[in-house]
Amino acid sequence: MANIHRIGILTGGGDCPGLNAVIRAVTKYAIMDFGLEVVGIAEGFGGVVRNQWRLLNLEDVSGILPRGGTILGTSNRDNPFRYPVMIDGHETYEDRSSESIKNLEGMGLDALIVTGGDGSQSIALKLFSMGVPVVGIPKTIDNDLMATDITFGFDTALHTCTEAIDKLHTTAESHHRVMVVEVMGRNTGWIAIESGIAGGADIILIPEIPFTFDNVAKAVLRRRDSGKKFSLIVVAEGARLPGGDSISKKTGLGRNVLGGIGDVVSHELAALTGIDTRTIVLGHLQRGGTPSPFDRILATRFGAKAVEIIMDGDFGKMAALKTPNIVAISLEEAVKGQRRVPPDGELVRFAQAIGTSFGVTSN
Ligand code: F6P
To answer: At the top level of CATH, which class does the domain 157-288+342-353 belong to?
Structure first.
């Protein structure tokens, strides 16, 4: 067993349900079974750069299992190697990695747990290569990490989207409308395809499968001609327009973020079909709320495994689900590739088999 006295944990990137379950599992296992001290670092890597942290005790993690968000806070912008700073009213980036490593040393850590998606794990890998004893835990509602069968947060997001699609079905049916539901997922269509199948969507549009508006309109009109006066369309935020571009919009602070494809699909369809078409963007609702039992269990398993990896002194690894086990894989493998929906895979094929259109000619 490695000589470990104090470990740190941070939650980086976009939040998701289950982060508190990880923090709780890590803290309880580390304190109760190994007598360690646990440092909670604030606001992801922001707290590493700015040296913001506190000791966590059992009381701090009591009652947080069902809570969404993260008691530590997070940031999807603060990167020690590319830290955003304002100079003369303009945003620019600075390398703050050596200061960050000094801060981590000052915290007295024998190991650092980085809970995050591919961006956070890439930073973890860089820090590891500079000598920081890091262990990763994968999270993201997008479920787009190649190295683990599933990330926690995804299941809860699916529940949120499926419930929304169920509710939209009834109002679409009453008004004979087409409802377009835009969901998250970045450049992958996992949330869209799985919530679309679970919610019985008629058309699912994902980044991995190029669609045309004509084909989407034909699918809607075919349904109308067969007597179904409404249609439900689920579109992933990263779905690409015919031509290959994705759609982004500006936040209030002028930052470009994915989003807006739902409205484009809606307007094009209304023009092509003459049917009243409305859009709903589920947005950050998908990241909020209490984690599902599945996500609580997965997050707890990942947290406990991370502590065991640390006690084995097996740094530079990430906990991953290789069903049925939680295993330790290298951080290199963890960030190697993005998991995308296979266009010829079983999920797409079976959805098509039961009449779901992906906006391609064949269905
Ligand atoms: O990666 C999680 C995610 O929610 C994506 O699905 C989405 O594109 C992005 O984060 C949104 O991030 P932000 O918090 O910056 O709006």
So the answer is: alpha beta
